[in-house]
Amino acid sequence: xxxxxxxxxxxxxxxxxxxxxxxxxxxxxxxxxxxxxxxxxxxxxxxxxxxxxxxxxxxxxxxxxxxxxxxxxxxxxxxxxxxxxxxxxxxxxxxxxxxxxxxxxxxxxxxxxxxxxxxxxxxxxxxxxxxxxxxxxxxxxxxxxxxxxxxxxxxxxxxxxxxxxxxxxxxxxxxxxxxxxxxxxxxxxxxxxxxxxxxxxxxxxxxxxxxxxxxxxxxxxxxxxxxxxxxxxxxxxxxxxxxxxxxxxxxxxxxxxxxxxxxxxxxxxxxxxxxxxxxxxxxxxxxxxxxxxxxxxxxxxxxxxxxxxxxxxxxxxxxxxxxxxxxxxxxxxxxxxxxxxxxxxxxxxxxxxxxxxxxxxxxxxxxxxxxxxxxxxxxxxxxxxxxxxxxxxxxxxxxxxxxxxxxxxxxxxxxxxxxxxxxxxxxxxxxxxxxxxxxxxxxxxxxxxxxxxxxxxxxxxxxxxxxxxxxxxxxxxxxxxxxxxxx
Length: 487
What we know:
Elements: H1 7-16, H2 21-27, H3 32-42, H4 46-49, H5 53-63, H6 66-71, H7 83-86, H8 102-105, E1 108-110, H9 111-122, H10 132-145, E2 150-154, H11 181-184, E3 190-194, H12 200-208, E4 214-218, H13 234-249, E5 256-262, H14 272-278, E6 287-295, H15 301-306, E7 313-317, E8 320-321, E9 340-344, H16 350-359, E10 366-370, H17 377-384, E11 393-397, H18 403-409, E12 418-422, H19 425-428, E13 435-437, H20 446-455, E14 460-462, H21 471-478, E15 482-484
Parallel strand pairs: 1-2, 2-3, 3-4, 4-5, 5-6, 6-7, 6-8, 7-9, 9-10, 10-11, 11-12, 13-14, 14-15
Helix pairs in contact: 1-3, 2-3, 5-9, 9-10, 12-13, 13-14
InterPro entries: LRR_dom_sf
Protein name: 11543_t:CDS:1
């Protein structure tokens, strides 16, 4: 029956299954035609879908040119990298070529995922860390072979390098400056850069990319970064901001921007240049996210955001916004297309949220208020819930005694499809509950499993429909209680 389907029909099947990797793996065994159709979907972002990253690197190793393997010492005589490499037979190199040009099929590339996969590939060798040379070999080859649509350059995974091998400012890892990057990034649509990266990589992106739809940039490395200088001095941060401004200005139609990690001790006024350049994309920008940003002095933040008439989603994560009543006179059409309003662990004035909800009265579909909002959530919703009758998804943090009140308040939302309470019922209850069942819930994640583990009394857990738990999360839970989970 499968062999009689038209090409168009098969295309539709795979298009609908493109994120269902378990089913995709099954489909490629139907016949050779289905295999040819399905492989590109599985290899769009292989590092995220691979069950065994080491086997993935084995396949990519076979895609390397023979001269490149020999150049970097990756031959049968080399026992310094991994058992996988040492089994390579250079005399039979031609017979070991893979069936498909897998390396050229990759469209989404994550530097961090590559580091993790290669490190696991090398792990059979005791006390060996992944060498910078080996990582760079694979990285250069993939950039030369593929044409990326999405690129994630996360430099936080530096534990794979010995301390004397890594220099965060090294031009050697200005990947977008490599000659092979010009071809691979010509169709780039989404770019994410984070960690202790060389600031010049933003400048290189400006030279290569003019059609980016989404940009995500970390301005200061993570406080937990293990790089030599986990926190950048001011001049380095300002340099990154200047390059980011140039990158944004170089794009034709940016639709998404995420700016992360601009800390309390840095002057928030220095972000004004970023806000100014985003005006160039006011007709296109649909998504804005601020993560770990100090906006406590940005009293004009609503005025700034109101310029972007096409905004559909505004996200604040771990931010500090001003906490005073400020009610600017915004144009009536401001935020009229806003679909999602999200505040997570963000200290924000009630006036900011209320104005956004008022101006998005008929459009708002998702409201997320999770974390440290400095006002009574129930009292706030009693005043404003009726202004947004079309809410479909609501997520909030509650104390256990607030549940009846909040259910009464949101009765007005007749179109609700998703309701999430971030509530530590288990931690507050005095009962010792041995059995928990969530048989129809797809939203259970590793975070929920950690909470259940912390609670400590569960003996039987049913999460048979969960979709957001990882293999490690399940294995860890099964060490402590019986878990029903359909893998």
